[in-house]
Amino acid sequence: MSIKERRDGYLGYERRRKGLRGGRIDISLGTKKRAEGAKLARALDTLLDLEAFDVVEAVRAGTLTVRQVAEAAGDVDSLRVALNPAPVDSEAADSPAIVPLPDLSLAALAESVVAEKGATRSGGTKEVYERGTRALLRFFGPERELHTITIAECRDFLYSPKPTRHPQNPPRVWSPNSQRSAYDVATFLWRRALSVEAEASRMHGFTPRLVANPWKEVTPADRKTTRHSFLSHEEFAVLIRKHRGHPLCAALATCTLAGLRARELTHLRTDIDMVLGDSAAASVIHVQSREGEHGWDTKNPNSVRTVPVHEDLYPLLVEHRESGYAGRRYFFRTSRADKPLGYWTLRDSAQSGFEAVGLRYGREGDALTLHSLRHTFASWLAQEGVASRDIARLMGNTADEVDRTYAHLMPSDDRRILGRMGNPLSGEKSGVSPSTR
Asked: Residue 314: what pLDDT?
């Protein structure tokens, strides 16, 4: 038996046992009195010793209360009857039926929300919700019920320093974007729980346990504007000349002249995704998901696309292949095996390559990163007046995303735009076909 005091002041019951979902149970006993808590915990111990895991899971789900288990005094059969009561005449019933309460545990709601987002949204959105729910589960615990979480605890979650990737580094607060994402996930989770609880209360006539969303009383940081530093044509030319003949050269050029993300680049398969014909016009790059060994999914459905090979990129790719750097399976491979080049290997090589030509690498000020090469692709096209929808199609983004990030780079020639109307008073048309009415 294991009794512990929870964050909300109530006593909790925790025990590990094979046969339980997740191999353990951690629930609130709903009391702050030590003697009463010991009694309730002994009742749960009895169920586990009898291997009545179905009844224990019903307690975890809220279908049965811990007090009902204690009152049954180890009579597992009566508890199972309570879970699955036989049809009876309502007038002859001696006691009210047990109301099936919705499971408001954080683990159950997080699982259902992530599953829904995975089925209805892009892979990137699902990843955001997975990351946000993992943070909530670490902080509050998987068995914590949402109606027991206070506004003060929500603030603690959002404002407290978080552990870093390396334990030796001191904790640090959320970045504004990460904090806002976690806040959005938590708000949606509670909003879903409120709707589930309200619907169940209407159907079964019980008083809702969760009646308000505590996250509405918490203020997250404002998101930072997306940084999109990019290379000039001169800087790109210097970078390519410096690394010509090295496998890094083709990788940097492909990210820049085809607008690929780093992981899209590292998973390109030779002659399947990277198709090199006898000229640039006959060559294309397919960005697509795949299964099997080294399986990989694109960031979202828009990311699946075909990008023509730029005429300046083509000779660099051919040189990369003829120099033996490309593998039979993967065009950008590791030096020891024909498998996808690791992201961190590419990132570290890019940093060394940037610094070798005097370009600052990093996320502060005007420094550049590997992802800046993709920004360079979009920025150069925007400066040439290419339509947002065309840039979005080549990048695997939406036109709204392109407008939001690169619209300030697009040339504005209002006189030229108005000139498209022609001279209506003189009857002269602009040459543009009228839309069909």
From this structure: 96
